[in-house]
Amino acid sequence: MSSYPQRFVVFHGQDCLVPPQLAEALRPSADGTLAQVVAPEVISWPASMFPLELFAGAAQGYSYSTFPFLNISYGAVLLSDDGGRFIKAAGLEHAAHLPVRGLASDFSSHLGRFVLLAKAHAHWAEVSRFCGACGAPLVDANGNADVREPLDEHAHGARFCPRCRRVFFPRMSPAVIVMVRRGDSILLEHNVRFPGNRHSLVAGFVEMGETLEEAAAREIREEAGIEVKNLRYLRSQPWPFPDSLMLGFIAEWASGEAHPDGVEIDHVGWYTAEALPELPMKGSIARSIIDAFAAGRFSDSQPS
Ligand SMILES: [Zn+2]
């Protein structure tokens, strides 16, 4: 039996539930950020505030994954649409809602890191309840004497199948996102799922057997019908909606006329920094790369 973590973080949909008595702390500061007024200590809940039987395991329908943050052990729980029973049993009806996606813009802060890490663990707990090979209920791998391979002590969230003895590590889904430049313009596209006129960079999941470079070239070819050159890595961002690791690149147009695939993408275009369309939310890696372009941060390496 693993012991319960000392504190819990509870998610419902895309929000983090915050104890009612601490909702006051959620008021935005003068500059509009929540991060400066909310610390991990006030968005996590002492275990004593929960009926512990809610965490007894899969039979209850709720699972949690444990992770350390600043030397404290936390458990993260994700409530799906049927979370009403949990909310009522735990007395969470009047909890305040901290928008998780909004905190992505402050991933460098302790709070942003904490909430996104907790969100990733909460999702993993929800989808790692049973063995994908034999169907048996999984248990925590850490500290389990039956696990043959010694686990890295940092393999938090690893799950173990007592029946077929497989170990499952937390899953991340790598996705490439690429800013393609042509002269002083960049390629932006409108996905059919985007609201309004929002445009973003070419992006897509890496397929099995692909290098990141191959995935980037394929996505650009598929979605916009062009070829690129001089692809180079910029930076990455964990994006736990639900389990992506975004890998950002920049590339230069090489050949072809851009046109949308007509299925996933219904519009593509070349945009200068002075005439950008509606952009993705601040905090996303797409937005930060586009903002850097608009601020002229890539101008030194642009072809004249
Ligand atoms: Zn199994």
Structure summarized in a few sentences:
The protein has helices spanning 40-43, 84-89, 100-103, 110-127, 212-224, 285-294; strands at residues 7-12, 15-18, 45-46, 64-69, 72-79, 96-99, 139-140, 159-160, 167-168, 173-182, 185-191, 202-205, 227-239, 244-255, 265-272. The protein has 304 residues and is α+β, with helices and mostly antiparallel strands.
Layout of strands and helices, then pairs:
Blueprint: E1 7-12, E2 15-18, H1 40-43, E3 45-46, E4 64-69, E5 72-79, H2 84-89, E6 96-99, H3 100-103, H4 110-127, E7 139-140, E8 159-160, E9 167-168, E10 173-182, E11 185-191, E12 202-205, H5 212-224, E13 227-239, E14 244-255, E15 265-272, H6 285-294
Parallel strand pairs: 1-5, 10-14
Antiparallel strand pairs: 1-2, 1-3, 2-6, 4-5, 7-8, 8-9, 10-11, 10-12, 11-15, 13-14
Zinc ion binds next to loops.
